[in-house]
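Can't paste images in this forum, so I'm doing it all in text. The chain is below; anyone willing to post the predicted structure tokens underneath?
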Amino acid sequence: MTCLYIVRCNFTRAELERPWNDWYNDQKVPQLLAKPMFRAVQRFQRHSGGGRGYIAIWQVASPDAFKTPQYTSDWGFFEWERHVTDWSRDLFDAGNTAETALAISMNGFLQVISFDGLDGTSAEARRAALAGASDLMWFKSAGLDRHTPMIGLRPASDATGNPSALPAGVQAGTYRPICAFTRAVAGANSSSG
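Text version of the structure:
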């Protein structure tokens, strides 16, 4: 099963955000893309609305990516960990979604809707009640921390379009890319899953 590994967090030190983002984009991205079954990634920072300040959307070939010795021996935020809060790492079933479906141009936006803390039935009822959310791509939780039972993602050309009246338990935000959509180098990771 192809999966989206979505990492969301806030960062508490505004004066260190640039070096943290440089580290994440220049060191963390290549580090993880070299691991077995990691295929692609793009990172975003919240532009408007609610939700965490940062989101990274990793594409992995299988949930087994998180069981490899290469992953388990070398993951985390390292020296930045003390400044990272509200961290979640959730795995979602991406089904047959094309790898490039979530590749956002550096001038584009990504709309994100989540249901943190709700069970699947409650999240589904709130999703059904959202006006203007039917054209989002919806992904159901498939593992790891399971902070949200599903997540909705929509590439957008501008920052408009977040639902205005949100039911309780719904977070909706618009994000700007802070790194280009990046694929793993062919042959860099030995196991395709």
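The domain at 3-183 is CATH 3.30.70.100 (Alpha-Beta Plaits). The first strand starts at residue 3 and ends at 11.
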